[in-house]
Design goal:
This protein has 487 residues and is an alpha/beta fold. The chain folds into 2 domains: 75 residues, no CATH class; 402 residues, Peroxisomal Thiolase, Chain A, domain 1. Helix content is 43%, strand content 17%. Strand 12 and strand 13 form a beta hairpin. Helix 4 packs across helix 13. The chain starts with a helix and ends in a 12-residue tail after the last strand.
């Protein structure tokens, strides 16, 4: 109906322009009009021009669609469910074994706290006490309370040529306590490794020699709006923050730390390449994925407003709310021994499936969930499961944008037995915009859901305007399918 009304409006506007032009021309030339002139110029000419305009619009849209399809095909080469990872190369599926997950958000400083806040229906992002929109009104934000950047500033060099912006300091301050928590677990693991890295300390089927020491492989994602100096300073801070407290048990040569500006999709792709290489070598080195983000300084808010990406109750009710958060996810390519010091029940999943939407979810018009449906279908097939086996779903979607429409279209198609209130946990309703943190946050939530329920859980990341991620996580105790015993 909307398209029909737009067509009528276009025809009326075009006809009025033609009539005005023709009548003005006739009056200027003092032309004597007959019935043929009236029918030809005032009747047929607007219709012909309207048909021509429709043809041009159709041709332009077809060309744009072809161009978008070509760009999507190029962007998803090696990343689509059908062509990515080990399956595309005839290898066994690459499993990610979850060793630990830590998060820090405005709604909770741990996965359990966030899930509890979501279950309780805690208040949504609130008016920010320090930041205002371009009308001078407090903007809606998900600010981490009592976040102190003093320790971060003290740890940075005093002679920095370009001081780090407030948003970068806040992002690192959100990540810092997670490094402490991860380091505690890493210390326990390193003490267990100290038995001379003997063959008995290696997982079954490990091809790595007994005298080859494990490396801790860190992949860190910095926000896209950080400049090179900011990223370099953050890399130096991260290296010191990770290595110094554990030097006695893990000297610098036992660390491999890589950080750069990466989206969440790029971070997961880099992790998959690392894990794939480790699996080929039979190594169980822990791979640590880190991401942090903050929108909460004046510069970031101005940038979001200039790009029309910031929520406004009347002008942009479906835009993102400013947020901040951090996440750490530790995985391995090879299952650790049963007596390894892992606090939680083991959870694993086949490499996350990634795909890029042909059109941004924020574009006007009907929201298509086809790509996300295919992703979840691929995840279920890779895990040897069906929708009825899934007990929980975790997502970074919110409830006020088209992402919610996409999410519920997926669940209706594949997991109709799940209850939206009881079984869904939508982090975006409480955390606001957290960019590259979102996929890690989603995987961490789904891992916790799988442990708690003892059944598979779906992780579905929809926060990016284009990229989609899906994975099906299952606990070791789940034995509904023949291959579950191998977990």
């Amino acid at each position: 109906m909307k398209a029909f009304l737009k067509g009528v409006a276009l025809f009326v506007a075009l006809a009025c322009l033609v009539w005005i032009a023709v009548l003005w021309r006739w009056r200027a030339t003092q032309r004597d009009m007959d019935e043929g002139d009236i029918v030809l110029y005032l009747g047929l000419l607007p219709i012909v021009l309207f048909a021509l305009a429709l043809a041009v619009r159709w041709a332009v849209r077809s060309a744009m669609a072809r161009q978008a399809a070509a760009a999507t095909a190029a962007a998803t080469a090696g990343a689509s469910p059908a062509s990515s990872g080990a399956a595309a190369q005839g290898k066994p599926p690459l499993h990610w074994h979850v060793l630990g997950a830590w998060i820090n958000t405005a709604a909770g400083a741990s996965v359990d706290e966030l899930l509890a806040a979501l279950e309780a229906g805690s208040p949504r992002p609130a008016p920010d006490p320090a930041l205002h929109d371009d009308e001078g009104l407090p903007l809606m934000s998900a600010r981490m309370a009592d976040l102190d950047t003093t320790d971060i500033e003290a740890a940075l060099p005093a002679d920095l040529e370009h001081p780090m912006p407030e948003r970068a300091l806040r992002a690192l301050a959100g990540l810092s306590p997670l490094i402490d928590e991860f380091s505690g677990s890493l210390l326990n693991w390193a003490e267990a490794w100290s038995d001379a890295e003997s063959p008995s300390a290696r997982p079954q089927g490990s091809a790595a020699p007994a005298d080859e020491e494990r490396l801790v492989r860190v992949l860190a994602s910095w926000p896209a709006d950080w400049d090179d100096d900011c990223c370099a300073t953050a890399q130096a801070w991260l290296t010191q923050r990770l290595c110094d407290p554990l030097t006695a048990v893990l000297p610098p040569e036992r660390w491999s730390i890589r950080s750069q500006r990466m989206s969440g999709t790029e971070l997961l792709s880099a992790a998959e390449r690392t894990l794939d290489a480790l699996q080929a070598q039979g190594r169980d080195d822990p791979v640590v994925l880190m991401a942090c983000h903050s929108d909460l300084d004046a510069g970031a808010i101005r940038a979001l407003e200039s790009r029309q990406r910031l929520f406004h109750a009347t002008r942009r009710p479906k835009a993102a709310m400013a947020g901040e958060g951090a996440a750490v996810l530790v995985v391995s390519a090879v299952a650790w021994p049963a007596d390894a010091p892992i606090e939680n029940e083991r959870v694993r999943f086949v490499s996350p499936a990634l795909v890029r939407r042909a059109q941004s979810v924020e574009a006007p018009g009907r929201v298509s969930a086809d790509d996300a449906v295919r992703l979840v279908e691929h995840g279920l097939t890779s895990a040897g499961l069906d929708g009825a086996s899934v007990a929980k779903l975790a997502s970074d979607a919110d409830q006020h944008t088209a992402r919610a429409t996409e999410l519920f279209a997926v669940t209706l198609a594949l997991t109709p037995d799940l209850d939206a209130n009881e079984d869904f946990r939508l982090a975006g309703t409480l955390t606001g915009r957290v960019e590259s943190v979102a996929p890690l946050l989603t995987l961490a939530m789904a891992a916790a859901q799988a442990r708690e329920s003892g059944k598979p859980a779906v992780a579905l990341s929809l926060s990016d305007p284009h990229w989609r991620m899906a994975a099906v996580l299952r606990p070791a105790s789940f034995s509904n399918t023949p291959d579950a015993a191998q977990a």
